């Protein structure tokens, strides 16, 4: 399901005049959902990209894929590759452990990796955070930009906190609890509100 951007923007304008001004500044919503490949491959990519610049992460991710002929690996294929090969692709020891744990979970018939889209938001977060290296933030990004769930507000995200601070003229960064309270009227389209807050930070002199 694509994120219902047009309907969401209409709702957000109606419930929050400050966010309406942000929408005017940023322009049309261009949030996109990445449907290509498997859920496993999407989480693998998220782990590789953690705490790295986009260019460095893309290089390492490409090297990991090169171990599998440039294709997205299956969980069992990844488990057959030794640690030295993964480290040679540029992964840290910690991320190597994370990917192995992800593959072990995904290879288990009891773990619904490729059925995550059938679960509700809370169940997706609960399931994914069983994997080493996958916290609530990573699970929320999966919900937003892999599954296209429309009502996710990543309250721990520094960009969201800074976006709210800037949009509402706050002296201090809001706490996660304050982010959630501020975002209550945005439901059920908090994903789109989040996208606008991130994009606000990209604007010059915003």
The CATH topology assignment of the largest domain is Endonuclease III, domain 1
Can you count the helices? Answer: 12
Total number of beta strands: 0
Question: Secondary-structure element sequence?
Answer: HHHHHHHHHHHH
CATH architecture of the largest domain: Orthogonal Bundle
Instruction: Please give the CATH class of the largest domain.
Output: Mainly Alpha
Estimate percent helicity.
55-70%
Largest β sheet strand count, sense and barrel closure: none
End-to-end CA span: 32 Å
CATH homologous superfamily designation of the largest domain: Hypothetical protein, domain 2
Multimeric state: single chain
Low-confidence stretches: none
Q: How much beta, percentage-wise?
A: under 5%
Task: Give the overall silhouette.
Answer: elongated
Overall mean pLDDT: 94
Radius of gyration equals 18 Å
Structural class call reads: mainly alpha
The overall number of domains is 2
Brief summary:
With 206 residues, the chain is mostly helical. It is built from twelve helices and no strands.
Based on the model shown, name its key terms.
Endonuclease Iii, domain 2, Endonuclease III, domain 1, mainly alpha, 0% strand, 2 domains
What does this structure look like?
The protein is mostly helical and 206 residues long. It has 2 domains: 5-32 and 152-200, Endonuclease Iii, domain 2 (Orthogonal Bundle), CATH 1.10.1670.40; 39-145, Hypothetical protein, domain 2 (Endonuclease III, domain 1, Orthogonal Bundle), CATH 1.10.340.30. The chain has helices spanning 5-15, 17-26, 39-49, 54-66, 75-80, 83-88, 93-107, 121-128, 136-145, 158-168, 176-183, 190-200. The chain is elongated, with a radius of gyration of 18 Å. The protein starts with a helix and ends in a 6-residue tail after the last helix. The model has no long low-confidence stretch (mean pLDDT 94).
């Amino acid at each position: 399901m694509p994120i219902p951007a047009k309907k969401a923007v209409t709702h957000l304008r109606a419930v929050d005049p400050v966010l309406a001004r942000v929408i005017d500044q940023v322009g049309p919503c261009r949030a996109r959902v990445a449907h290509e490949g498997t859920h496993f491959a999407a989480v693998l990519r998220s782990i590789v990209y953690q705490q790295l610049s986009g260019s460095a992460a893309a290089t390492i991710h490409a090297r990991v894929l090169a171990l599998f002929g440039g294709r997205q690996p299956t969980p069992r294929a990844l488990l057959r590759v030794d640690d030295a090969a993964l480290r040679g692709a540029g992964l840290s020891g910690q991320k190597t452990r994370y990917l192995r744990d992800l593959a072990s979970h995904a290879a288990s018939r009891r773990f619904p990796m490729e059925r995550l889209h059938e679960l509700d938001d809370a169940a997706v977060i609960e399931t994914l955070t069983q994997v080493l290296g996958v916290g609530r933030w990573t699970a929320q990004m999966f919900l937003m930009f892999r599954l296209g769930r429309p009502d996710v507000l990543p309250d721990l995200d520094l960009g969201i906190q800074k976006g709210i601070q800037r949009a509402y003229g706050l002296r201090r960064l809001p706490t996660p609890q304050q982010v959630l309270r501020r975002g209550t009227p945005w439901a059920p389209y908090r994903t789109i509100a989040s996208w606008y807050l991130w994009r606000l930070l990209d604007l010059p002199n915003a």
